[in-house]
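<goal> How does this chain fold?
<body> The protein record starts here
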Amino acid sequence: MSTLVIVESPAKAKTIEKYLGPGFSVKASVGHVRDLPKSNKNAIDIDGGYIPNYEIVATKEKVLAELRAAAKKADEIVLATDPDREGEAIAWHLMEALKLPPNKTKRVTFNEITKGAVQEAFKHPRDIDQHLRKAQEARRVLDRLVGYDLSGLIWKKVRYGLSAGRVQSPALRILMEREREIRAFIPEDYWVITAALAHKNNAPITYTCKDEPRTEEEATRIVQAGTSGDWHVMSVEESEQKRNPYPPFTTSTLQQAASTRLGMTPSRTMAIAQKLYEAGHITYMRTDSPTLSEAAQKDLANLVKTMFGAEYVDTKNFKSKGKNAQEAHEAVRPTHPNKLKAGNTDEQKRLYNLIWARTVASQMQPARLIKTKIRANIADASIPDFAVTGSRVKHDGWLTADPAARGEEVLLPELSEGDTLTCKNIESDARQTTPPNRYTEAGLVKELEKRGIGRPSTYASIMKNLQDRGYVDKQGKTLMPTDTGDVVSSFLEQNFAHYISDSFTADMENELDDIAEGSRQYRDTLAGIYEPFRKEIANKEDIPKLTNLGDAPKEFTCPTCGGAMVYKLGRGGKFMSCARYPECEGARTEAGNVVEPDKPLGTYPETGEPIFVLEGRFGPYVQVGDPKTAKDKAKRKEKPKRASIPKDKNPNEVTLQDALKYLSLPRVLGIHPDTSEPITASVGRFGPYIVHEKDFRSLKTDDVYTITLERALEILSEPKKTGRGRFAKKRT
């Protein structure tokens, strides 16, 4: 008897065929074989009951032909795609596209690609779960209908080419809500006061004032009193605290930890985890359940006992916090905990180690810490108390398996109440309060999960779509909304607030879960969601086109025709232009600073070409050469010389001398004596800098236009600073 097994990936196929042995042929579909057509015209039959009209993916014709030929020769066909809704849908599409006979086609699933799990799964074949498949189809159809209708309206009312997604739009709204908090934030001055206090001949310890004065006078008073006062210990408090291990990874917590500890993006994390899963090293990586099977708990308990001792074992299971822990119903864990290392690449090895440590630690005893807090003050207590806090590990518990989660241990000297202290130094540091931080990818994933928006399989694609569509710039780990993202989100919030709200999006996810469980009907659910939405779209057809993004300041008039100026939307975001453009080829401006592109400032001495002030995607700039011929030059790959205009400079006030100054960058300051390589000064995305052999140094106080070679060598000789303050920035 011959059996054809169909999975998604070739790597998975090789591993499974090895476990099944003779009589089994394992082939890969390489993902989905059918999808909705790109054109929305006939993609979904709404009146017929939201029936999708699938078509074969163009690149899969050859794959399907090979699978069809293999299926004809087989006595039995087993669809062994992934154990989630997407996998169930792929299995159904294969059955439909290949016209597989139901009487000899079965479905099996396994949460891990190990010999035991695969062979056990084949003992329990089943039919395709139509509820799961329908839930995936409902998501796909809703995303297409909502996304196309919203995007179509945005094309008409905002700008052609923009798009909006059902889950992507709430995520963008969350980013913009934080951005508006940051814009509205008003910093306040405060002072952090620290004192270096020593007991007898011990090394001084830094104590921090518990109050943060809001005036310089109060800060000065505390410093003066502390300098002249007699210090002593007010109290010593010690307490034992228990620190419990974290649950094993779910999809979202894996993405968060990989971002924080390993610097991996969610999409990269999932791609690496996919490879580990296909190689049989970890369980399925799309899950929102932190539970472990009984067999896994037993294996982990034996491993902990062997590696660390019986006293470290604390077997436990964790329950999902969510209402519907679906997809694969077990946490992301190693399939063989005894395998301490796995993976072919450095990234795979690092991610596997993270998963291994988290899983093993989850089955270990809590760590016990001793927290110590010492308070000190001067004799008359005329100033606020100063305090220092330390900790030490009494019993390491689960931290033995996951030492990276330990944190820094701060040991304090043994002191008693009343002990005298000597003040070696006391100083105040002026600072300003800072606005809330922008989201990182890990932070946004955590927030989406907290609000019930999206599901494990969608988080990575949400992050990617926001960046690919130009709505978000990723700066380091920080997600920064762009002007385009701001405009799109504002438009959706003003016109479709209900449909991009947390409650609507989360409720929709719950309804999709209900379809998967069989407690809700596909057609009724889609009609209940889409019909009101379609009416809302129709009601918005008459809203005016968003060419005027707010009234321009009345004092600004077009310098060409004297007419009104209005805000418009361009590729780089909002700008101000003549209301009669393009009939009047007048001004374009940013923030009310009028730019006249048709009027040259003068000529560039080196070429004799005119110099113009222009407006670009990233703000105003000066350019050598007529902008009307710039496109012709671009075709010949002749890039015109350009330079940004500083943000504090009104573009309409730029003179020829200013332009020549800006165009002098980048400046070669000279040759480094040790390497014979040039040192260059210029202005980049994050401000002025110097660079030597890819060693970039920001210029904080030096003028990029006048800095000398000698000064640059001094800066390059200094140790390079890395990282930034986590909580507050110093006042300048």
